[in-house]
Amino acid sequence: LAGLGVLSVAIWTMVDRYQYVTLLASLTYPIIVYFLLSAGALVILVAFMGCYSVLKENRILLVFYIFLLVLIFLIEAMVGILAYIYEENVQTELQMNLNNTFLTTYKIDHDKTMAVDFLQENIENHYDRTAFL
């Protein structure tokens, strides 16, 4: 279930928030998302392997299962720490690069144009909703 949860968060991030990636200059955000996706898929595979190794009472597979669990924990901890650290940098990076994107690539680069339009629509919808609160 934890693997499905991590995989779901990674997929949601890719589907719902990935349009902002083209506005960022660094590759940290996509790398974090792909690590999260990999960790979620790996947890699911390792869970099945653990069930199989217990069913067959295979000690070598059980040791390998424990090793993979530790590896997955370290990957998820690294992704969590990177996401926490990078969360503060996203706002600054967007502010620094957004003006440059408007001036140099808007209506020239289709992906960046779509990302800027998506950002403007979401900010406008966010402020419309909060005006009634």
UniProtKB/TrEMBL annotation:
Statement: the UniProt record of this protein carries the keyword Transmembrane: yes
Keyword terms of this UniProt record: Membrane, Transmembrane, Transmembrane helix
Pfam families, sorted: Tetraspanin (PF00335)
Protein name, per record: CD151 antigen
Transmembrane portions of the chain: 31-55, 62-86
Keyword Transmembrane part of the UniProt annotation: yes
Major localization class: membrane
Native source organism of the sequence: Asbolus verrucosus (Desert ironclad beetle)
Location in the cell: Membrane
Entry's Gene Ontology cellular component terms: plasma membrane
InterPro entries associated with the record: Tetraspanin/Peripherin
Membrane topology reported for the UniProt record: Multi-pass membrane protein
